[in-house]
Amino acid sequence: MAKTAKTEQEEPLEKKLWKAADKLRKNMDAAEYKHVALGLIFLKYISDAFEEQYQKLVAQKSEGADPEDKNEYVAEKVFFVPAMARWSYIQGRATQPTIGKDIDDAMDAIEKDNPSLRGVLPKVFAQEKLDKTSLGGLVNLVGSATIGTKEAQSKDILGQVFEYFLGEFALAEGKKGGQFYTPQSVVKLLVEMLEPYEGRVFDPCCGSGGMFVQSEKFINRHQDYYKKKGKAGLSLNPTDRISIYGQESNQTTWRLAKMNLSIRGIDSSNVKWNNEGSFLNDAHKDLKADYIIANPPFNDSDWSGELLRTDARWTFGVPTAGNANFAWMQHFIYHLAPTGKAAIVMHGGAASNKGQVETLIRKNIVSAGLVDCIVALPTQLFSNTTLPVHIWILNRTPKDVRPEILMIDAYNLGTMKESTIRELSSDDISKIADTYHTWKNKSIEYIDEIGFSKAVSFNDIENKSFIISPNRYIERIKKDRIMPFKNDVEPFIEMSIQYTENILSEINQNNLSNQLFKDNFYKSFNKNFDKSLWDKVEVSEVIQCTVSGSWGNEEHKKDNIAVKVIRGTDLPNIPLFNLKKTPTRYLNEGKVEEIKLQQNDIIIELSGGSKDQPTGRCAIVTKELMDYFNMPIICSNFCKIIRLDEEKVNPFWFFFYWNQSYQEGLTTRYENQPSGIKNFQLDEFITSELILLPARPIQDEYAEEMRKLFEIKNKLAFTNYNLTKILDKTFENIYYDFNETNLLSSFS
């Protein structure tokens, strides 16, 4: 009987190797172990390539070939591996207690015989904390894979293994991992937008060299370009189409880059290292690059800016000494050729920061016509930050007219690869890149896409004080209705009426239990809302101040008074009178006066959350809550109070806005996890997001009607679910525009 073919897809080699290698890591820090694992993989690669060429030369001895002649290998672009460094010798000693020293000696020997590798290979294998039994196991594991032969190279097996390991080590290291690795899907997007077909490619903060690797892959994927353009010399190695230039200030990261490029046959002679970095010691002072692709450190305050106040690179304004974002931006522009282009990963705040210096520099860069496009990326793409991240596309090609900028909001793209890491798919990358290229191609009609992209005029940008965050310009996509608002919300109203029949004495004043409530409700809310006269303002403009919390003392001390401390876990229960576990603490009376809650305060959860529970939850302080405890109330140090300017905004309007933002996931854009704990960046949110405000009487009218429902909801456990639905759907109906074309046919 014939064997049944296996239908399960075999696990890729890189994943198999990673799982096994990670087990052998034991307690060693990922930051150190990556040099052990990647160094061994590189050693195996060059040994495999050497062995394949060695056997060819052995077969050609009768023709005068010498397998031990270094020149025989140089001619074939193969590293010469001395006998003591060949894999067969290393693996034969894997069980010896001296295996660590043997590998270090092998690395030294290879560097001596191959000048381009001098100072590159890791010599970390003899250190005492590296368990030699585990090291021997890793040698045998890596030895089980063939990764350096011509066939393996043609399939880019080692490249896949090396790149996969870099990504996994970046995840393991968390925030520090972002210093040497940019996620592959982000790099692919940068390269697809930039299209570096040929020329000088520069990355002045090159990490492990991923930008250069993807540039080479881009050329390989687009061979048809050269045929269509009638380019001669199609037999050229794709890497010869571009020349790369790089700089890295971290020596161990630079070594990773050199190895990463060497295994792909990419000339890395112009990838330089010095510990001063690109600002203090520019390794390519005279370079004018055709393409710059970079992911610089975000918001770096330790960049020696005070030493560079008169630097020639600051043609658009002297950057602040406390933040290097616009120093990097001007460094990139300085190094662009007259028609050069750049694709830059940048912290979202650079597009909207209102500081005087940052605003002036941004204005000058935009006014010079250098910004082609801004892309707002989804959260959780990076292991080192979950704060908003943008891509800036810069273009030095002279413009005939005042510049227009393409804004793209890609926030809703990407899929979760793991619980905390998102990845852009090939379709996502194509959607963004194709939109940009369609806009650039004047022979193709570009059309704005609601909720995704918009071409913004210089005048519009000027009117918004040169803030260039895409969310300030892109029209929100209309929501689809499957049934009319009345039909959608009516079941919840009916259920609320039904459940309140037993407690009519508490709700008669609001008419919630009879037809009058329904009629009045529809009269107020079942209509279209003209938003043309509504103001669109930054959230911070309606806030009087923010007040920090405190955890107080467990025991009573001198001058202390008792306080109730509201925690993030209490917020869903405010004011449901289900706060029996809210702790009583003790705090200095003067401090209590400074930070105690007041009626209409908004409490925001800053820290905590869980895998499925984002931070940013809110509650509004009511008189009922104040009366319930009969003592001063403060919030914990993991929350913060927003005290509103009630001349500008009705507190309940603001509360409903914030609650809707949380339900929509907008607040998750402003989370980060520096130590595995979610933190909500309140200041980032309120200075970046906008709130729509009708005239105050209209706010009061709508908010007052909704406030009544809100307070009843909090008194009635039975009606909680139904009234929540009424609130969500009602405010959604007021605040958003809807596409009515997808209504169910039964409601047509």
From TrEMBL:
Task: Tell me which stretches of the chain form a coiled coil.
Answer: none
DNA methylase adenine-specific domain mapped to chain residues: 154-478
Please list the reactions this protein catalyses.
a 2'-deoxyadenosine in DNA + S-adenosyl-L-methionine = an N(6)-methyl-2'-deoxyadenosine in DNA + S-adenosyl-L-homocysteine + H(+)
Q: Which GO terms describe its biological process?
A: methylation
Which Pfam families does the record cross-reference, listed alphabetically? HsdM_N (PF12161), N6_Mtase (PF02384)
Q: What molecular function does GO assign, one term?
A: methyltransferase activity
EC number assigned by the record: 2.1.1.72
What region holds the N6 adenine-specific DNA methyltransferase N-terminal domain?
Answer: 13-140
User: Which keywords are on file for this protein?
Assistant: DNA-binding, Methyltransferase, Restriction system, S-adenosyl-L-methionine, Transferase
**Entry similarity comment:** Belongs to the N(4)/N(6)-methyltransferase family.
Under PANTHER family, the record lists: TYPE I RESTRICTION ENZYME HINDI METHYLASE SUBUNIT (PTHR42998:SF1), TYPE I RESTRICTION ENZYME HINDVIIP M PROTEIN-RELATED (PTHR42998)
UniProt name for this protein: site-specific DNA-methyltransferase (adenine-specific)
